[in-house]
Amino acid sequence: MVTPSKDISTETMSQIAKSKENKYELLYFPFHGVLPALRAMLAISGADYTFTHPVDWTKEKPTTPFGSLPVLYETDPTSGHTLELAELSAIESYLGDKYGWMGDNLWERAQIQMYHSSTQAVFDKWVTTVVRAPKENKEQMTEIYLEKILPEWVETHERILQGRRCNGHYVGDKFSIADLKTATTIDNLVSISGDRFLSREKTPAIFAVYDAVEKMPKYAAWKASSEWKAYDELNKKLFGF
Ligand SMILES: N[C@@H](CCC(=O)N[C@@H](CS)C(=O)NCC(=O)O)C(=O)O
């Protein structure tokens, strides 16, 4: 694991952050978890990156900013300095800004973050209400999720995207981190609920976003890779989806 540089000025850090020649290490557990969109961002960015995993998490945990993963390490090959960034949404917005997936202006950026946040929340609620529920409450929590939480997300996002004439994008005519978050979350939501709420017939506008992302050649190549499949396998084994 690389060690983040200390004692460099924020001005130097900001200069380093601008370069697309840097080398990234993204530290997370060896399954998809909350990372399908973030890993896909690096996979389609064209950047030099590796996905790393903790060897002994108990020992490594206190070395991370908040005791949790993911953490992104970004090294400037010229100076050898390494930047460290934690918190999923901060990392996704940072890479989104750097690679042009946050719209074309301040308002588009705000809209993209709004849709992205809503979709991240529907997945986080699954983790907090169902995955982490005590065994005896799991069935009841699953029902709450499927009766209330998920349908609300599906209805609101389908309505919003219908308003965009099903063009496969949340904002403008361009791919953004909001599109990617929805596309990667759909895989999980369909595993969880089958076609009860989400299908090409019931939610064509949401699936237009899904299909637009799936058609991106670099994204398709990433999903077909042995690395992606290994994360998928462990995810299914540990969490059932
Ligand atoms: N607020 C953090 C939460 C991340 C989080 O919950 N990470 C979990 C894995 S999905 C973790 O690190 N768990 C191990 C631990 O807390 O020791 C973020 O958005 O990045």
Automatic annotation (TrEMBL):
Domain GST N-terminal: start-end pairs: 22-103
InterPro entries assigned: Glutathione-S-Trfase_C-like, Glutathione-S-Trfase_C_sf, Glutathione_S-Trfase, Glutathione_S-Trfase_N, GST_C, GST_superfamily, Thioredoxin-like_sf
GO biological process: glutathione metabolic process
GO molecular function terms listed in the Swiss-Prot or TrEMBL record: glutathione transferase activity
Annotated transmembrane regions: none
Annotated GST C-terminal domain residues: 105-238
Protein name listed in UniProt: Glutathione S-transferase
